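Re: the 284-residue chain
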Amino acid sequence: MPAHKPGYRRIAALCLVSALLPALAACGPTAEQMTARTQSAVSKPPSPDPVPQPAKARTAEPEPTVTPEPLDVTVSGAQAGMAESVQDACQFLLRENSGEFNGAADCVAAAMEAGIGAEQQVSTTASWLPPGTYTMQFRTAPEFAMELRRTDGDLSISVSEAGRTLRTREAVANADPSGGAEEAYAAVLADAAELTANPDRLRSLMQTAATVRAEYGVEYLGTAATRLTAVIEPENPGDFAGSVVLTLDELYRPLLIDYSGTTRGISTSIRADITGWGSGGDLG
């Protein structure tokens, strides 16, 4: 067998490599592809690691309950002079609550007592008082007193610590419901006269109300006022039945008291326009 020369072997090896190069190229990326992939990996920033969320600590105690502070009514402006007794009795109005006002009688009585006194122009039609127009001066503190006069001078009623007296052109009688006809009649008229001025009388009547409701921001003589409407039901046959409407100032003192209804089946109306709170009139 003839011996091959070294040059022949190199030629054969080169031929073999040349034949295998296409197959190797098909099995993997070329050098240029590897370079491009390396550069792309370097240029792309790595994705940040996710931040772990802390687990909510569990406790055996329940979540604290937030309790709202109680409403604190602040009295300001014209109400700065309101007596503490009135503020206590009239919280319903100070908060401008709606619905039925169960404490209306005590509220109005407290405001009248704190108001010391005032003057009234009273008009009546077929009521306890003889129909007509009257003027009144009254005081609510330290004790109740009043002087009511009919404008024609035919009748006057005075109330003081000394007693209650009815004066007409014909006679003078001391009010006494247990006395004779003149004394009992004087007592009826004195009770009627006190309805718009005596805090205790007005309180007693309003306590018989089936309902009392409030309206706020009502205009009265160009100013804002509060209006109370009480529906009165008779406690005894023949007692007053109807409504009492009170228009109150900023300190809840009555500016207008309007009774309308029936007494013993007879139509009754009393209207009292009140001015000059704090004066006490000219009563001693």
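The helical segments are 6-27, 31-43, 84-89, 91-94, 104-114, 181-194, 199-206.
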